[in-house]
Amino acid sequence: MAAERDERPLSPHLQIYRLPLNALLSITHRITGLVLVLGSVWVVALLVAAAGGQQAYQALHGAMTSWLGQGILFALTLALYTHLCTGIRHLFWDAGLGFELATTRRTSRGVIVGALALTVLTWVLASAANGS
Amino acid sequence: MSLRTPLSRARGLGAAGEGVGRWWRERLTSLALIPLTLWLAFSIALLGTADHAAVTTWVAHPVNTGLLLLTLVVSFWHAAMGVQSVAEDYIATEWRRTAAVVGFQFAAVLLALAGVLAVLHIAYGS
Lengths: 132, 126
Description:
The complex is a heterodimer. By secondary structure, chain A is mainly α. Chain A has five helices and no strands. In chain A, helix 2 runs antiparallel to helix 3 (about 55-65), helix 2 (about 20-50) packs across helix 4 (about 65-95) and helix 4 packs antiparallel against helix 5 (about 100-130). Chain A is elongated, with a radius of gyration of 21 Å. Chain B is an all-alpha fold. The radius of gyration of chain B is 19 Å and the shape is elongated.
């Protein structure tokens, strides 16, 4: 009986169904949104530390400029721009635009390229600002 | 006896328990956050590894003070609605879902308030 049940065909579920790029970007939009809550907490912590004075700010500043801190900041930047780009596409969808399959494939690639380009641009500007 | 029309009494009684108000506010806040977050991200990048004096001078500039206050309020408002949408989709038990949503809303208000007070303190406190 058990063997018979095991051989039943299964409908494709999340574990075996390869998510199309659009579905991946959809869940990425939600995950990056949640990650950005942490980013907002970081901005508030930065402001509160700056308001607290030189010493409080310096402690946070040290953590930020460490290797790990920079890595976290880079991940947050990438999350921010990914959420921004997928979000802009969601706004177009909400307006009823860009639902054709060919268009969504193109905009999926556009969203990824846009997010990466904005991330790189931001960090190039940041390192240029630090260099001068 | 109610003077309300049958339609107005039926509104908001769907599965979500409310109308399209939150949907619309999610879109409006995201639209506002496009320029605001771009401004904030590039500003932070250009500040780079600035020292305390440079950061407080930047925050105290009237344009930056205003935009920072706006960004703080709108982004935590947006975050509260976004987290609520996610919680409503993935948390099936009603009391857990309500606890998560209300808990996050309280936290969002506290964080936004902390940010706003910090900005005002830097700009006007000293």
